[in-house]
UniProtKB/TrEMBL annotation:
The lineage of its organism: Bacteria, Bacillati, Actinomycetota, Actinomycetes, Kitasatosporales. GO terms for biological process: lipid metabolic process. This is Lipase family protein. Gene3D superfamilies: alpha/beta hydrolase. InterPro entries: AB_hydrolase_fold, Fungal_lipase-type, OBL-like. PANTHER family: ALPHA/BETA-HYDROLASES SUPERFAMILY PROTEIN, TRIACYLGLYCEROL LIPASE OBL1.
């Protein structure tokens, strides 16, 4: 099924087509700058800025990349993700120290905190410059990019509510923070944040609880691709059991096959009106 992306620049609430459009924006974050420029102009955005920085400890040298695109009604910032095999050390290393949460509330995973910090000043400055018509602001991302999108939303909400995001949509996002910060995020965002999980995707199950927690507003795709507002208890237990009884990050595992952004796009396509 081939679906033409349509951005409703005036939207202010949840819908599956909007979730699909932001998933496409997350997918686009993996592309080169020229491809991103061409696509966002096709989507009706007339201004764009690319964000990239590098950081080292405590992981091998990494790039943090994102782009911000603006029209006269909407601004989106999409953070680039990475492959599970490249972030498994981040997600399972219990020895890395925590990073202080926004406004001193709770803590976040050190790798995610440092990655966002390395790029945040440019992202925030761009939002302030682009938001010249009271546009809505949306953060989105897949995998690592989803964690950064969630934390970016938390930073605006808790540190500068004048620039608060109108919505955060993530796909295959790992746990990024402790329960205290997750609760503060949930209280601030209500029904403006949505965390999509595709069936047995292993990345949302990491880093392990109880040190790290997820925010609420789950949207779950079952093994048939049907979208649910929550994870059914029996299905969730079965999926977790599968993830724990296999090599979760082996190339042939169901847990790994369910993670790519293309799987999320295909699942969303099945649920479009």
């Amino acid at each position: 099924m081939t679906v033409t992306a349509t951005f409703d620049h005036g939207i202010r609430s949840y819908s599956v087509p909007h979730a699909y459009a932001l998933a496409l924006a997350s997918d686009l974050a993996y592309q080169d700058d020229a491809t991103i420029d061409d696509r966002v102009h096709e989507w009706g955005f007339d201004r764009i800025r690319h964000h990239m920085t590098r950081f080292t400890p405590p992981f091998p040298l990494q790039d943090t990349e994102a782009y911000t695109a603006a029209s006269d009604q909407m601004i989106i910032t999409a953070f680039r993700g990475t492959e599970p095999s490249q972030i498994r050390d981040w997600l399972t290393d219990a020895t890395t120290p925590p990073w202080a949460g926004p406004a001193g509330i709770g803590y976040v995973h050190y790798g995610f905190g440092e990655a966002l910090e390395s790029i945040w000043p440019d992202v925030k400055d761009t939002l302030a410059r682009f938001r010249d018509n009271d546009q809505t602001v949306w953060f989105t991302g897949h995998s690592l990019g989803g964690a950064l999108a969630m934390l970016a939303g938390a930073r605006l909400q808790l540190e500068d509510p004048r620039l608060r995001a109108d919505g955060v949509y993530t796909y295959g996002q790992p746990r990024a923070c402790d329960r205290m910060l997750a609760d503060a995020f949930d209280q601030g965002f209500g029904q403006r944040a949505f965390r999509f999980v595709n069936n047995n995707d292993i990345v949302p199950q990491l880093p392990p609880e109880p040190a790290y927690s997820h925010v609420k507003a789950l949207r779950y795709f079952d093994s048939d691709g049907e979208l649910h507002d929550s994870m059914p208890l029996l299905t969730g237990l079965a999926d977790r059991a599968k993830g724990l009884t296999a090599d979760a990050l082996a190339p042939a595992s169901d847990a790994l096959r369910d993670h790519p952004i293309k799987r999320y796009l295909a699942a969303l396509e099945k649920n479009l009106p």
